[in-house]
Amino acid sequence: MTHHSPKPEWLKQKLPQGAAYGRTSRLLRRQGLHTVCEEALCPNRFECFSQGTATFLLMGPNCSRQCRFCSVGHPPSGRPDPLEGDKVAASAAELGLNYVVLTSVTRDDLEDGGASQFAATIAALNKRIEDVRTEVLIPDFQGDSQALATVLAAEPCILNHNIETVPRLYSQARPQADYERSLYVLSESQKLAPEVPRKSGLMLGLGETEQEIGQTLQHLRQHHCDVLTIGQYLRPGKEQLPVARYVTPEEFVTWEEEAYRLGFTAVASGPFVRSSYQAQHMWQLTQSKVQA
Fold first, then answer.
1. Which of 96, 220, 221, 282 has its CA 20 to 30 A from that of 267?
2. Confidence (pTM)
């Protein structure tokens, strides 16, 4: 099936709107904050905003890299806002969140890749909200172990770094990233903070084969990844790569079963699954397995 085909039935969504959606959206604008939900045109943004949740995008809306599946702008300009952590904490408190997901654009232009901005934001959240849990979805920090240590020292409840696609498609989809380096981020995190579960995400529909997907899942497990999200790649605009095919809901179920068989502790796999999809539930699942 090529990208000219109309979207299959299972990819058509009803968009919930309503008071909570508008409230979340207005609050973020007022604080001058960005969300990956909006910048990356996430298909679940209506559902999440309606439930009063959002994934905060740190360090501005523009990225150092130009991944060909992503609609986030580039290049970045200026230093990150030193008050960003406090603004995120204030917004999260106003939204009544006790589980917050932080991500960022990639900032190869900063000495530590923005690691200290993650740490400062976690600290601000801990100060503002009692018993808050913070999940971080980090860039690769160009493989800098010190930057990784900075983030982990702030004690996030989960460290997420997305592998995104299979190695063969990196040159096409993520030309400035490196498959081995992304795996290194996961295994190095395990060395630095074994108590923090590691998470990664994979998009299907860019032209990967079944064998390649299976191999990537094995690589993730070998590099101590515990939690996994698998979703359908959807083309955000004409500039981005076309969809090679739409993966059926049944196939997503098969991959979920395979991931559990390989030993992942929590897996979400489906057409609309994204990195932060049901993040708190996934974390709870991991905790219950650890305690069992």
1. 96
2. 0.88
